[in-house]
Write a structure and sequence with these properties.
Layout lengths: L1 H25 L2 E6 L4 H12 L3 E6 L2 H11 L10 E4 L2 E5 L3 H10 L5 E4 L19 E6 L5 E7 L1
Parallel strand pairs: 1-2, 4-5
Antiparallel strand pairs: 1-3, 3-4, 5-6, 6-7
Length: 153
């Protein structure tokens, strides 16, 4: 019976740790840097919060926000209106929460993710539907190159 009890305790401990790690990951904080009053940035921040992230929205003057993007290693054509920072990664623009969760689970050696520009139908940019723009989520590597991480119709 002692052996069975030890096995049950081990299984219970493992299940509890798995549950706690899921709760911890759901409460990860993303810092969102934006310019004041940008509705789509607020919309994306709400999308992240609805998907389990704790959010901290900071407004910066546009020149300061652009410096953050440049210092992070983003190149022309890789930027959008807001920049998120989480666990050493940059999340640029209207990246869906599930891709951020995937990035944090996979932990690639990269700067982060970007959805360049502001495609209609991406999180914070209107409704998903027949009028939505197709877009790619790009993984940005440290040398500035990118690869498609996910595509949305």
């Amino acid at each position: 019976m002692n052996r069975l009890g030890a096995i049950l305790r081990a299984v219970t401990t493992t299940a509890a740790l798995t549950l706690l790690s899921g709760i911890a990951s759901a409460a990860q904080t993303i810092e969102v840097l934006s310019t004041s009053g940008c509705g789509c940035c607020i919309g994306w921040t709400r999308h992240m919060a609805k998907n389990g992230f704790s959010t901290e929205l900071r407004n910066l003057p546009m020149a300061d926000l652009m410096q953050v993007k440049i210092k992070a290693g983003l190149k022309p054509g890789q930027t959008s209106c807001h920049t998120g920072r989480i666990e050493g990664y940059v999340i640029e623009g209207h990246v869906p929460a599930r891709e951020v969760q995937r990035l944090l689970a996979e932990r690639p050696d990269a700067i982060g993710l970007t959805v360049p520009n502001m495609p209609y139908g991406s999180p914070g940019m209107g409704e998903v539907g027949p009028d939505a723009d197709p877009y790619d989520v790009l993984l940005v590597f440290r040398d500035g190159t990118t690869e498609v991480y996910a595509s949305y119709p």
